[in-house]
Amino acid sequence: MGDNLLFIVERRGGTLYVDGPYYRFPTEGQRGFTPLDALRLIARMFVARGQQTHEEAMMAAQANVPVAARRMPPHDLPHAQNPVPLGAIIEYHRAAGPLTGRLPASRWWKVIKFVSRFMPSTAQVDLVGEIGGGDITAAWRGYLGTTSIVLKMNRFIEEQSENRAVLDEWCRLSTRLPGDIKRATVLPIPAYHGLFVREEADMILMSDCGDPLEAYLDDEQGEELSVAYEQALNVLRDVGIEPEDVAPRNAVYDGHVVRIIDFV
Q1: pTM (2 decimals)?
Q2: 9 beta partners
Q3: CA distances (Å), 23 to each of 16, 28, 123, 174, 251, in order?
Q4: What's residue 85's pLDDT?
Q5: How far, in Å, CA of 26 to CA of 31, rounded?
């Protein structure tokens, strides 16, 4: 914004906050931006990064995940029954650890797992609404603290005894992804933080990688995204994964990266 004028931009969850203008050389009535303000901004960045890392550690290492429903207007539920009654909290127990993820792929993972033993054993996820799915399973967006995540679960809970589609998908993921978690993490797919179960339901906790790609293909960047989509498919093929049900509806875009979902 020039040598004198500046704005502070911060993203919290899915909201972008803009503060300003500030002036390095303010005149009367203008808000100044001093070196002390710069130090405070840097400190806030480290605090926010620390909060994000803490939430990532909870997703990857916590033993249990209580899931709560909130802000679910009827139009968010066109096909499925609500997996969690509004205002209720239902606890799922971890059945399998992460398959991919920044922290599990890091050299500090053993330390993080050890430290997690002294953290609270549960991490609550607040559901916001359904974002996609098919006839059998559905994907729900939610928040763990300030981190947006996606839960994949059966569309109709009462069918759980006969339908273990989510569990079956996790088993396919665990056998088809590279055994080296570092190699798996760099693939253009979500971070799979874990499989959680309860008697009548299975649930996969994964990173939120944006909205369905097909919603962007008619935009001016559609051709570029189509190329990125094909490149992402080829990356999976290069490691021996032949994606199933290849279609743009099974890809997501977060404004930066195209990732493939439902590929096994």
Answers
A1: 0.73
A2: 18
A3: 21, 11, 42, 53, 43
A4: 64
A5: 6
